[in-house]
Fold:
Amino acid sequence: MLTSALCGPGVVLAQTTAAPTVPAASAAHPDLWPKASSPDAMSDPATEAFVADLLKLMTIEEKVGQIIQADIASITPADLATYPLGSILAGGNSAPGGNDRASAQAWVDLARAFRAAAAARPGARIPLIYGIDAVHGHNNVVGATIFPHNIGLGAARDPELIRRIGEATALEVAATGADWTFGPTLAVPRDDRWGRTYEGYGENPEIQRAYAGPMTLGLQGELSADHPLEPGHIAGSAKHYLADGGTQDGTDQGDYQGSEQGLIDIHLGGYPAAIDAGVLSVMASFSSWNGVKHSGNPTILRDVLHGPLGFDGFVVSDWNAHGQLPGCTNESCALAVNAGIDMLMAPDSWKPLYASTLAQARSGEISAQRLDEAVTRILRAKVKTGLFREARPVEGRLEVLGSPEHRALARQAVRQSLVLLKNEGSVLPIRAGARVLVAGSADDIGQAAGGWTLTWQGTGNSKADFPNGESIWDGIKAAVTEAGGSAQLSVDGAFAEKPDVAIVVFGETPYAEFQGDVPDLDFRPEGPLETLRRLKAAGIPTVSVFLSGRPLWTNPEINQSDAFVAAWLPGSEGGGLADVLIGDAQGKARHDFTGALSFSWPRRATGAPLNVGDSNYDPQFAYGYGLTYAAARSVPQLSEVSGVTASASSVDRYLVDGKLVAPWTLVLGDAGGEAQLAVSADGESPQKHVTTGAVDDLAQESARQFVFDGSGPASVSIKGPAVDLTRQTNGEMALSFRYRVDARPAGPVSLAIGGGAVDLTPTLAAAPLGEWRTIKVELSCLRAAGARVAAVDAPFALRASSAVTLSISEVQLAANENDTVCPAAVGAPTGTP
Structure:
C-alpha cells in the first residue's frame, strides 16, 4: 500500500489499489535521491479549496475523462458532447484539417472550437488543457520562429538565452491557442546513435541542471499564489522522465541497464531544477530501467517523484506508451494509472481506453482514491495555467509569430551555438570583397531545421514553408554583398569563374525519434566529400558547414576542409551563420565563435558511447572544445580509419537510388521456387512468371520494372534477416514507395509484409498509365491485416497471379504526414482495414 502527500498541505490520499510489483533491480530507494520541491504557490490554500470543491461536483465519468488525452487527428469538438475528456494534443503530424501547412488562424480556430465544445458540456464544465510539441520554437506552425535544436543551445552555454527562448516560444504558442508544451526536454544522451540525441542539451548533466530552471521560467513565468500564469505564458512538461538518453546501444524507447546511482548522478539531471522552478507536469519516458518500463514503475513515478523530489504537478504518459506495459494494450491499462500516470496520452485509442478505464474505476481496479489523486493533480495544473479564466488576451495576436524580436533572438542563438572545429590559414572570417561560392544544402531551411518541424520527421519541407525565415544562403549572400563581395549558389559546387573561397553546407537530413537511430556514427554520403576534394584540387580555400543532430565521424571531410564548423540544426535563421563566417567591410570578424562542444566528437565511427569522464575517454575533439578567432589553433591531419568494417544495415530503407540497402536482397518467386537477384542485373530472371529489369525514375536506372505474365502465381519480395518494426508500427509509420503502372492489372495485386496482405488492385487500376506516383501504406493497417511486425524478414512483397507490369522505386518507411492509405485486407470486404 502506498501513501503520498499529494493534494497540498496536510492532505494525504491513500492509494488502496495495489501498485505493480517491481523487481529489486528496478526498484528505486527514495532515501538515496536528492531533495527538490514544487513551489508553495503551486498548491496554495485557495487553489486547493477550489479543486476540492470541484472534485466533489464531478461524476466518475467526468473524472475518468480528465485522465484521458486524445490527439486532434482522432477527435472532433463534437465528440466532447459524449466524451468528457480533459485534454487534447496536436501530435507531430497532426494539424487543423490534417493540413500540416495550415494557417496560424486555422490553429486558433481549432483551439476555440474545442474549447467552446468543452464549455458547452453539462456538469462540472472543466476546461480542456491543450498540449503541443513546441520543442524548438512553435515548430508545428508555418511562420513561427524556429530556434536551434537543443544540441546547439547546449553548445551556447547561456542560461539567460534559454530563458528568453522559453518566453518567445510560450508567446507564439499562446497566440495560436494552445496552453501547454511538452518541454523542456531534459534527456542526457549518452550514446549518440540515439535518434533523439539532438533533443538533449549535452552529454554531461551539468548543462541540463543549468538550463532546466531558466527554460521552465521562460515558458511558465514564476508561479504565484495570487494569480495563474501571466498571459503569454504556458504550462511546461519536463521530459522524458527518466533516462531516455541512457538506453542500451542508444535504442529509442529502449532499456537503461544500470544502477540507481547512475540514474541519480547522470539522468536525474535537470529535473530537480525544473521542479523547483514550478514545472506543472512531467512526461514519463517510453524507456525502461533494467527491463521495467518507467510508465509502469511506481517507485520512480510515485515514491521518488512525489517523495524526495517533491513534485506537486501531474504526470502524463507518452504516445500510447501505456500499451507497452505487460498485460496492457493501447485500449486498456489500469496498471499505468495505478503506477502513477495521471494522464494517459491515448492519441488514437482514447475512445476504447475511456470505456475500459471507466469500467476499471467502477470496479475498483483503479481505486476512487487513486482516481481522485490523478484528477486533483490535473485540476491543480489547470488552475495554475489559467484555464478557468475567460480572458485570453494573447490568443489571435498572430503578429508575434516570427516577429522581428523573436527572429533576432533566434539569430543570436544560432551565432552562439556554432562550434569551430578547424580554421587553417585563417580562412575564416571571409574577407571583405571576396568572391564566394556556396555549395550544398545552403538554401534548404528544412534541412537546417531538422526533425519536429511542421511535421514529426521534419521531412518534405521547402524554403517556401518558412515565410519568416532566412536560409543560410540568403544570409551569406546578404553579408557578402554588404561587404562589397559577390556570392554564387551552386548546389554541386560547379563554377565558371574561380571563387576566392567556397562554403559547402552539408549534413544529415531530417529525422525524429526511432527513425534517427543509427548503428554507428559514420557520415556516409559521398557527394559532399567529392565536392570538397574537387574544390581542394582546384586550389580553392574551403569552409565546411556541417548540419547534424549529433557529432558524426567526418575525418575525411574535415581533412579536405580549411575550416570546419559544427552548425548542428540551426533552424530558420541562417543569417546567424553569416554573422560569424563573413567579416565586415574591413575583413574583420563581426562576431567571434563562442560555442563549445556539449557532446564529445568521435575519433572513430563505431558509435561506442563516448562521454567526458569515462575511464577510456579518447575523443577526436573533447567536450568543451571550440576554437575562436581570438585564440587560433592548428588541427593536424586526422586519421581516416573509421573503425567500421562493414556497411551498416538498415531497418527502414530497402530500395533507394536504384540500389538495395544492406542487408536486403531482391527475390522473385513463382510456383517453381524463388530466385535471389542482384538489383543491378538486367534482363529476365529464372522465374518464368515474373521478370525484371532496370528503368529510369528519379535518376538513370534508379527503379525496377516487374512484368507478371499472368501464367501463374508470382511474387516480388525484398528479403533479409528478421527485424522488429513494432516501434515503427506504434509510431504510425508507413511503407512508402514510388510506383508506375505500365500495364494495368488483369487481376488482384496484393502488398504483403510479414504474413499480412492488403489489396492494391483498386489503387493500381485507377492510376494513370506511365505516371510515377507515391503511396504510403500504414504499417498499422498491415498489422491489422495479419502482419507479424515484431519479426519482419520481407518488408516489401508484391503478389499477383494475373498479368500486370509495374515499376517500383524508393521503397522505405516514412512518417505518416496525413498522406497515408489503408487498403482493404486481402480476403476482407472492401473498406476493411
About this structure: The first helix runs from residue 45 to 57.
